[in-house]
Amino acid sequence: MSKHDHPSAAPSDNPATRHDGWSLAKQAAFLRQLSATHSVTEAARSVGMSRQSAYRLRSRLKGQAFDLAWEVAFHHSYDVLAHAALERALNGVEVPVFFQGEQVGSYRKYDERLTVALLARFTMGGNPAFGRPGATTECHARDFEALLARLENGEAVATGALTPEDPGEFDGLRIGGMARANTAALPCPSGLSDAELIAHLQAFDAEHEK
């Protein structure tokens, strides 16, 4: 399959070693941590860089692989928590009832704060919290590690950006077969209390808006 068959965006400002310290390996490590923590500050610190320098890099690489992977990382992290919150808001949490040391039954506990928090985010900015990302983002989210591998190796990545370098040919996307969620480093939603789940969603929103 030739390069002419699938036009993609090659990272023009993305050499393996950059004068600003953001090597390709460091970019990939930052993005993995961003997906795991939802925090730009933590992700930047994990690779010895500042939050401000991460945002400057993204601004310089707007429409390129790093920018796309950043969006994919945030969308993926948010979806894991938001869908868990939605399921819990609809179905509640089963709470066992004990009498004299033995379980005699159970009941379902519903937390209205989850419903309120989700409704507030469902129409945030006119976009549903569980709305579909751009077609390119969605395809790459199916195999986040493949996207990071291409970025780290300096390979061309189809970003969907409407530029002369990338006319948005979605058939050039490398999705690696079946969808694969990269959730190993994410907090397990089932292990969080309702308050913790709400706090994670709020922290995500606050960090994403900075």
Tell me what you see in this structure.
With 210 residues, the protein is mainly α. Helix content is 48%, strand content 7%. The chain contains eight helices and two strands, in the order ααααββαααα. It has helices at 24-37, 40-46, 51-60, 65-91, 112-122, 135-141, 144-152, 194-209, and strands at residues 93-99, 102-109. Strands 1-2 form a two-stranded antiparallel sheet.
Task: List the main descriptive attributes of the protein structure presented here.
8 helices; mainly alpha; 210 residues; disordered N terminus
What topology does this entry show?
Layout: H1 24-37, H2 40-46, H3 51-60, H4 65-91, E1 93-99, E2 102-109, H5 112-122, H6 135-141, H7 144-152, H8 194-209
Antiparallel strand pairs: 1-2
Kindly summarize this structure in a few lines.
This protein is mainly α.
User: Can you tell me the overall shape?
Assistant: elongated
Helix content: 40-55%
Protein structure class: mainly alpha
Residue runs with pLDDT of under 50 for 5 or more positions: 1-16, 123-133, 162-186
Give the strand order of the largest sheet, numbering strands 1, 2, ... along the chain.
1-2
Number of helices: 8
Count of strand segments: 2
Instruction: Give Rg in angstroms.
Output: 20 Å
* Strand-residue proportion: 5-15%
Domains (count): 1
Mean pLDDT: 68
Distance between the termini: 41 Å
For the largest beta-sheet, the strand count, sense and barrel status come to: 2 strands, antiparallel
**Elements, N to C (H/E):** HHHHEEHHHH
